[in-house]
Amino acid sequence: MCLGIPGQIVSISDAENKLGVVDVSGVKREINLACIVDDEHPLESCVGDWVLVHVGFAMSRIDEAEAAMTMDILRQLGDAQEELAAMRESDEMMNRKAG
Amino acid sequence: MKYVDEFRDPEQAKVLLREIEELASQVDVGSNRPLCIMEVCGGHTHSIFKYGIENLLPKNIELVHGPGCPVCVLPMGRVDDCVALAETPGVIFCTFGDAMRVPGSKKSLMQAKAEGADVRMVYSPLDALELARRHPDREVVFFGLGFETTMPSTALTVLQAEQESIENFSLFCNHITIIPTIKAILDSPDLQIDGFLGPGHVSMVIGTAPYDFISAHYNRPLVVAGFEPLDILQSLWMLLKQMVEGRTEVENQYGRIVPKDGNAQALGAVSQVFELREFFEWRGLGSIDHSGVQIREEYVRFDAEKKFSVPDIKIADPKSCQCGEVLKGVIKPWDCKVFGRACTPETPLGALMVSSEGACAAYYQYGRLDLKTMAENSDVAEESADQGARSVA
Ligand code: SF4
Residue B83 in contact with residue B107, Cβ under 8 Å? Predict the structure, then answer.
């Protein structure tokens, strides 16, 4: 929960609500980008950015090397697997309940 | 240096360790006691244990594992409140997975779920909001917890609910704030901390300026640190360097993530939605002034505490639990009478056993010492306490 997990923004899904899709080790999910956009770095310029994601919110822009290193330590700590599982489960839960 | 080989750059780790040892030999904190450095953040605790950093450090450095794991400091009464909310007819209670197993006075959320309460594990507060959209006939309560790292996400979710007028969504707010907590630790009479490793991701949100009082008023150095083992070693090196040179400053080792002023958007959302509570109750530490936040009047209709009747009863921690002393670094986990016996990660009595960021679970899981060695170690600790070196009990 506190360490977050790195991912790459692949698209903007809802510009009005500042939502985008992030790829975290192959798991894609919609996250909120409000905390990493400002006048100097508007929403449109976020695609391709690497970010640190905390509970569904991008909290910091990072470079790719930092992302790789962070992913590495999260894997070693066993936190990456947990975080990814939580993301996947929540995604499944949302989709299952959709109907 | 058995575990250094697991480091990303073993050579650099060895150099740092050598320099740390040399610097540590030049620092004299007096009264024959070790140099005590507290890592405030549970993420650091986890990393320190995983990489066995404690065992690599010179004997005169002691790491004290601070209260920076939000799940671990959740008092029993608040867990009971969660269970009561979850058992309210019509409610869907949403929580992060970490909080499911924290023991309440009668049951955990996990047990409440097994007994039929509609408890859902979510990854994000946004998931809870989505559930509220999908179930307009139900009341969806999100259990918000964590320090400043997760506070902005909850604040933004409340703002989103407001914007869409989602009236069946509310927040059971248990967010806590780091600065008053560090201050309470510094004011605690039975505590000796010579320096701090500052939390990385909390600081990413709040920046480094809020720590200035620690150097200015308490004369202690603080270094904001990353989570990589090399980050931690480098931060320890920076702390020792300050001590040797007689400086007490706030330094930032994690500048690649932590800007000096924090994250303006995140802080803006937090101050828009939340205000400080007069006080908040912590497991083991008791009540700390201004250490928690609550929803502002403007957003009160999203406040689960106002919307539902929450029992809000204070429950004393079980007598056999010594979580508070462990949290303050007064005793080591293995000194707790129930450690590894009645209290294990499978059957936690105290919250420090629940999460991998809790000191007790970390010792239990990664304890490279067996119980016998631990007991011997603690005898040594007691002896040195007897000599007046440091209050241990
Ligand atoms: S062993 Fe259990 S009861 Fe004792 S301090 Fe640790 S978590 Fe608390």
Answer: yes
* 3-class SS letters over B186-249: HHCCCCCCCEEEECHHHHHHHCCHHHHHHHHHHCCCEEECCCCHHHHHHHHHHHHHHHHCCCCC
Instruction: Characterize the bridge pairing of strands B169-175 and B139-146.
Output: parallel
ipTM: 0.90
Q: Does residue B352 line the site of ligand 1, with CB under 6 A?
A: yes
Residue nearest to atom 2 of ligand 1 (CA): B350
> What SS3 class is residue A10?
strand
In whole angstroms, what is the distance from residue A22 CA to residue A49 CA? Answer: 9
Residue B367: what pLDDT? 67
What number does the ligand 1 atom closest to the CA of B320 have? Answer: 3
Ligand 1 pocket mutation pick from B74, B331, B343 by most atoms within 8 angstroms of CB: B343
Whether the model pTM is above 0.90:
no
- Beta-strand (E) ranges in B42-176? 61-68, 91-95, 119-121, 139-146, 169-175
How far apart CA A59 and CA B71 sit, in angstroms, is 21
Residue B386: which residues within 8 A CB-CB, separation 6 or more? none
A4–B contact, CB cutoff 8 A = yes
Residue of B nearest to A56 (CA): B124
- Which residues are within 8 A (CB) of B297 and not within 5 positions of it... i.e. 6 or more apart? none
Of B265, B356, B357, the CB nearest to A35: B265
Q: How far apart are CA B126 and CA A86, in angstroms?
A: 13
**Number of residues assigned to chain B:** 393
**Considering just the CA atoms, what is the radius of gyration of chain B in Å?**
21
**CB B230 less than 6 A from any atom of ligand 1:** no
- Which tens digit of pLDDT belongs to each residue from B259-280? 999 999 999 999 999 999 999 9
